[in-house]
Design brief:
The chain is elongated, with a radius of gyration of 26 Å. The protein has 13 helices and no strands. 34% of the residues are buried. It is mainly alpha-helical.
Length: 334
């Protein structure tokens, strides 16, 4: 494409569109003209981006198309219908679509954590490199730091702190996935290392049952949310490498929007796990009752994803924003 010739041929249309957008009132004929020029300019923008990218011209046309799109579609306000649609279709569909990433992530991460715990629990020299024997006893004894950690602060403030920390970790996995997923692997390893250390130290003290009784009530749902975030982040990183039939820009935009929506949904999931960790884990309930609550919360979430998410995906839902909210573009050849 000869960019100078293309600009000369269509500059008048762009200027006319800009002029119409500046007017407060339009006649019926001018409104029709605005819609036509908007469609043409969106096509021009797509052609320039794919054939002869020019930053200055692309910026001008992107701004023009955005203004025209706002004028044509009007300002859309979020409603309770959007919230309901997100919770019953968009979020579970996004999690379900990512299952081929986060399910293997969960299985491999759990195996790594168990192996680390076994290694630490069966090798005294490894435990001695973690802390002095007196410190280890203080951590693992009855009424020690591992047990009092969950009741060391008021339940409400502890739950809020846990929720904030976990939501930040999940958001980092989703956002940093674009860097080929490498930061996600590091965040995931840190989480599994912390779990493995606790597993190994408490098992070496013969108190593994106590440790599992403290971790499982909230940990099942909490770790699942972390695995979902990590798997989605890794998927986003792979999209950078292999966008498939879509252009890399379009693929990243679609997967990135779905990841942002997933961050909001996972924040709600982590709110539930934080509430369990703050109010159920340190409670006086029997261990079996606390674990039952954790298993029930995990089962409800997985059922929510597989039933509602699977149904939404089969109906064509992807977890992306509605078509009317996406950037205008023309089809590109595969």
């Amino acid at each position: 494409m000869d960019l100078d010739v293309f600009v000369s041929a269509h500059r008048a249309e762009w200027d006319r569109l800009d002029d119409l957008l500046r007017r407060r009132r339009l006649t019926g004929a001018e409104t029709d003209e605005l819609v036509t020029l908007y469609q043409r300019t969106a096509t021009h923008l797509s052609l320039i981006q794919s054939s002869a990218p020019d930053p200055q011209l692309t910026g001008r046309l992107s701004q023009l198309v955005a203004r025209a799109r706002s004028a044509v579609t009007g300002t859309r306000r979020a409603s309770w219908r959007d919230v309901t649609s997100f919770l019953t279709q968009g979020f579970p569909a996004a999690v379900y679509r990512s299952r081929r990433w986060w399910v293997p992530t969960a299985l491999i991460s759990t195996a790594v954590s168990v192996l680390l715990g076994w290694w630490i629990g069966t090798h005294p020299d490894v435990r001695s490199s973690i802390a002095a024997p007196s410190q280890l006893r203080e951590l693992t004894r009855p009424g020690g730091e591992y047990e009092t950690y969950y009741s060391s602060h008021p339940a409400a403030s502890f739950a809020a702190q846990v929720w904030t920390n976990n939501a930040q970790a999940a958001a980092m996995c989703l956002v940093l996935g674009i860097f080929l997923g490498l930061p996600v692997l590091w965040i995931l390893f840190q989480n599994m290392l912390n779990l493995g250390v606790g597993f190994g130290l408490m098992s070496s003290a013969g108190r593994l049952d106590t440790f599992l009784g403290l971790v499982l009530p909230h940990g099942l749902l909490e770790l699942t949310a972390v695995f979902v975030a990590a798997g989605t982040g890794l998927r986003l990183g792979w999209t950078v490498i292999d966008p498939g039939p879509r252009t890399r820009r379009v693929a990243l935009a679609e997967e990135g929007r779905a990841a942002v929506g997933m961050a909001i949904g996972l924040a709600l999931v982590l709110f539930v796990s934080g509430a369990i960790e703050g109010f159920v884990t340190p409670s006086g309930l029997p261990t079996w009752a606390r674990i039952t609550i954790g298993v029930a919360a995990e089962a409800l979430f997985l059922g929510y994803v597989w039933i509602l998410g699977g149904r939404a995906v089969r109906a064509g839902e992807t977890g992306d924003v509605e078509a009317a909210e996406r950037s205008a573009r023309v089809p590109t050849a595969a």
